[in-house]
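ingest -> validate -> predict -> emit
validate: passed (alphabet ok, no gaps, 387 aa)
predict: started
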Amino acid sequence: MSINAFVDHGFPPGKEFCVKFLSSPEFTVETLGIISSHTGRLKKAELAVDIANALEKGKLTSDEILLAYVKQPRTWLSLKLGTCAHTPNLNSSASLLQEFSQDGWYGPIHEPDQPKKKWYIRTYRIVDYVRRGSGTASQLDERYIRWSVIAEVDKDYLALSWDGFTYSSTADEHIEQQQRTQFPFWNHIPGFFDELANHCQAQWTHPNLHQLVLHDMWDKYLNKSINGVCYKWKHLRIRAEASGLFINAHSSGIQEIDVRGLQALSQKLAQSVLDILGLSGEPEKISNAEDAILFTLIKDWGTKSYEFELDRELIPNEIKTEILIPNEIEAETLKEVKLKQIIKAHCYFGLKPNSKTQDSLQHLKCYSGYYGGSTRVLEFLLKELGF
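emit:
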């Protein structure tokens, strides 16, 4: 079973290791295409060989490869604000392209156009077990995953981003089908924050994500028009717990008009209450009751995590230029895009610091594709925070 991470099968250091690393899920085809100077169409494995050859011949530098790597959008993001005294030189990041290396911090990696911004990479070795063969002839092999967390350090903030994966953490010989579980990154990210703060002599603290998303951004964008531009806010999922009641509500198949899930639940509760009170025939009261229930479920019911999507309507001259272009499709299948995807994220508010689950860490799950993953989410949050 494939793992969404770099798995080392004992690759020898040097060029072969570099090719295997570049070919792994750690790099996207798009990123390899940016790094490579090859003008023709190459598959991922071919791009990896082309880049490794260019590095070996001195046509590419390690920093050029690693800068593209650290700037890739990822699935998970955690942000802290504060000032940084200095950005020290830690382990050589170039070594990560040539060998598995030891656990620790590597960098910094510089971007020429932004001298105040630097990147570091924190690597962590994880043992994974895989069963080869079946029955009495099967055997359990041990291999290593190199998990990498990317730190983006600027004068006002520190952002950690990473990808998740499932793995087998047990070497129990009696388990025929290895049980794969999500790697518990939330147990490690707080320590990585502390380590880097120590290295940089910095004081960083989490912003109040609950206030920012459920109050400030909600009040600013929900069913609002700003400078004549209409915004579309969709509630996708909440996980809340209060007064001994746990709520896990999910809006599936959301459409612009027929919004189900959370809003359908609010509507049903509002109608039931107003029916009893004899007010079901008053549309304004029904609408107000629906909003009040929805706000209570999301804002006030001990929300541990919340997923939403924010888009904006395009103005006429944007619609002409914003065209949906999947890879290699016929011209007649092109569609006009009338909405600009701004942000889609699942926010974990970190409201249970002593928990052994994700709820112990303030972080966000970011969606890729048109929503741009962690890169776009970070840009949006910093703008909303005034940076």
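The radius of gyration is 24 Å.
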